[in-house]
Amino acid sequence: MGEHIVSAFDHDLEKIEARISEMGGLAEELLAGALTSIETRDTSLAEQVTARDKKLDQMEMEIEEFATKVIALRAPMAQDLRLVIAALKICTTLERIGDLSKNIAKRAASISKLGPLPTTPSIIRMGRATQAQLSEVLSAYSGHDTKAAVAVWRKDVDIDEMYNAMFREVVTYMMEDNRMIGAGSQLLFIAKNLERIGDHTTHIAEMAYYIQEGAPLGDDRPKGEPVSPAID
Amino acid sequence: MGEHIVSAFDHDLEKIEARISEMGGLAEELLAGALTSIETRDTSLAEQVTARDKKLDQMEMEIEEFATKVIALRAPMAQDLRLVIAALKICTTLERIGDLSKNIAKRAASISKLGPLPTTPSIIRMGRATQAQLSEVLSAYSGHDTKAAVAVWRKDVDIDEMYNAMFREVVTYMMEDNRMIGAGSQLLFIAKNLERIGDHTTHIAEMAYYIQEGAPLGDDRPKGEPVSPAID
């Protein structure tokens, strides 16, 4: 944690890391709940996810306020400053992951009114892979594990590929059966939201790397084939 | 800009504001170009938008680096610190607006292969409204105009409503004509990207408000009717 010896300052930095980890844990729970609500068509669980997203918004504001105070009062330098600035960025990213999870959960209500959807297993598989990535990047962050952060960052290509496959699968169902169009559109948005959560996860990986290394992670992350109709 | 008299510091803060405005101008250009590429099915313009998005990524990194240096070397306080922290947040938001614009432009290529799409005028209308919001929030930011920032923030509800109307319109076309499903899915994503750009614009409005007022803008922003299938 650097060379400084001001213990109140150490305590502040530890508190920032702890709050980010706590917020990350809640974001992961919301994503897990959203996926279960789609899988089991549990609209009351979907409502819980929506309600708990407010807590995430509040945590974001608290972290922002505290991090700003730490900058103003302690004038952190080098890695300490990077940790505080990364916290300001990561808390916004986690808030967006919560928003996207809430958005997925809200679609459970629309989907619950429809007949069986043949694509549900694929979307849940994609969702659980996204959730695993989020979980791993949070561990990499709290364990200051740069290697693990890079590994998560590289693996996002798998999520992108699942998204492209999912897009083609859903559009095919929509073309075969007109009654699938409403539900299919919902599924396309759920897949897109998961793909975005994957992107946000790589952003956290970049921040975890930046804190430790003091340099950006680079711009050559492999991406899923962009030629398909799904695009990015 | 506060009471301090260190002129090199004033210069740093002005530079941060100028770079954010410059970056905002480029983000707005990319959005405008993306919309024109959809409207006129101009795939070479779409490619230009994609290429210029790299410049936006580079500007984000430069602003982050400079803002971090300013915090470390000048230890800004109060409104000055808020300006620097807001810049760190706004540059990420502008980078995302660029990404979403690039994503819209990429869809021009898919759409250009298809027959006439009856919904193009609606999506362009929604796009131009989103672009106007972005332009207004950037003026509010550079003019330190809190009232204008709040006005933009409140008007995002119009974008949300256009998005919901658009969603229903496109799904109706898809149901009436199966050959519209591929193009319709592209249009749904374009509409969703515009709605997200609208959300990012409100985030810039919140930051412009926070710099001047030192308090969050509040959480009671009106939102478009969430009961429709489009959701959020």
TrEMBL record, chains A, B:
Residues 20-107, 123-207 form the PhoU domain. GO terms for biological process: intracellular phosphate ion homeostasis; negative regulation of phosphate metabolic process; phosphate ion transport. The keyword Transport applies. It holds the Pfam family PhoU. It is found in: Cytoplasm. Keywords: Cytoplasm, Phosphate transport, Transport. GO terms for cellular component: cytoplasm. InterPro entries: PhoU, PhoU-like_sf, PhoU_dom. Homodimer. Belongs to the PhoU family. This is Phosphate-specific transport system accessory protein PhoU. It comes from Halovulum marinum. The gene is phoU.
